[in-house]
């Protein structure tokens, strides 16, 4: 038997801007075990429900993560609205869907850039971040924020988007699409990218299901699982198609995200074409009394916002089960048997969001 | 749109058996959430199949041990370690036991009983003068002293 070494990966690592640590047990160049450690920056945001009432807490939910900020506040509001039986106006549901898909789009473009940087493909990184800018500009013009949008509220949304701005969004995304396709083509066809990703970090469909994989990681292994199919918000009116690949390796996970970027543009265009006129919020009366698990599809997969109230203006419990937390067991499985040089790419193609995990 | 969510209260001794049955039926394990009550904990185990959530609810006292389901659903170990670290509950036979080091919080077991402030729901208000029954109003009007007499 080869000599075993323990190699630490993280919490600070060039490919990861956020802290996660793995103790990698290796035999020669092969990993035989991986033990993850989290909670380097745990913030205890869930316990803030004791100090912020259910209306104010939307702002805390908005700040769970920078990349999926809007989705957290949307999921939280959805949970509270379900408990209180609030009928959110249709226009607000459409606006939420538009911002949610734009969030997915910018998150995936950002991921594409970070992944390219990890391969040493810096020009691709620069191009990806350049293409992300128009999406952030849309956020800024429609909500006032580029990272934390603060657009969702219990009972609807805080801001409306006028017809001219909606038409402008469609035009800008139409211009962005060919540029994204061009960038994606480089990513998909480049020899060095394929060499680093094809056949690396494989997980089978069965393992992905049993180990609780969600999001692009599950879909890249052939699992047709996308929470948007449930039909929350305005997705019930849209043609949502889960992007599924079957190879189960790092390359398949990239393909899923690239196809999802383009699909998000289609969904935004479809939502803008169908958005009805009307109010964007309803007045909420009373306090939440009951419980609900709201499930939505974030860029990284299924997220659950569980809220429980007992009739007080403060929630009794709020819990977020984020996709990265759900993907950790599969991460361990994938790392076992991999080469030590592939670890950064494997972890990056899983797209872990430590900010969400350390909520 | 409301997603149907079924919650079935069960005894903790039945947990492993029911979880094994769900595994055999093809459910995937989604999460465990825990809520601190006045003197006990409420654990909700969620499973999903074809976008339909099925929840099992277990009530446990602070000193009680909960059996682990990580032998059946291997991804459950993370959630069980989380509950151990944040709520102080003991989970028996976890597949991977971090022994309290998964969440290195400054306050140990921050969600355990006594450390969580359970909100008090508002008490029903006493009826105001306008809300009092009509008969009482009439009565008080009759008994009012006649001014200036």
Q: What is the number of helical segments of chain B per DSSP (H or I, 4+ residues)? A: 3
The best one-word shape of chain B is: globular
What is the count of distinct domains of chain A? 1
**Which term fits the overall shape of chain A?**
globular
Q: Give the biggest sheet of chain A.
A: 3 strands, antiparallel
For the record, the CATH class of chain B is: Alpha Beta
From the alpha carbons, calculate the radius of gyration of chain B and give it in angstroms.
25 Å
How many domains is the backbone of chain B divided into? 1
What is the succession of H and E elements of chain B? EHEEEEHEH
Q: In CATH terms, what is the architecture of chain B? A: 2-Layer Sandwich
What is the string of SSEs of chain A from the N terminus onward?
A: EEEHHHHEEHHHHHEEEHHH
**Can you tell me the CATH class of chain A?**
Mainly Alpha
CATH architecture of chain A: Orthogonal Bundle
- Largest interface, counted by CB within 8 Å of the partner chain's CB: A-B, 43 and 36 residues
Number of strands of chain B: 6
CATH topology of chain A: Cytochrome-c3 Hydrogenase, chain B
Largest sheet of chain B: 4 strands, mixed
Please give a structural write-up.
The complex is a heterodimer of chains A (359) and B (149). By secondary structure, chain A is an alpha+beta fold. Chain A has a single domain (45-357), classed as Cytochrome-c3 Hydrogenase, chain B (Orthogonal Bundle), CATH 1.10.645. In chain A, 47% of the residues lie in helices and 14% in strands. Chain A contains twelve helices and eight strands. In chain A, helix 3 packs antiparallel against helix 4 and helix 3 packs antiparallel against helix 9. The longest helix of chain A has 30 residues, at 90-119. Chain B has 149 residues and is an alpha/beta fold. Chain B has a single domain (5-117), classed as Beta Polymerase, domain 2 (2-Layer Sandwich), CATH 3.30.460. Helix content of chain B is 22%, strand content 26%. Chain B has three helices and six strands. In chain B, the strands form two sheets. Chain B has a four-stranded mixed β-sheet. In chain B, strand 3 (41-49) and strand 4 form a beta hairpin. Chains A and B meet through strand 6, strand 7, strand 8 and helix 10 of A and strand 2 of B.
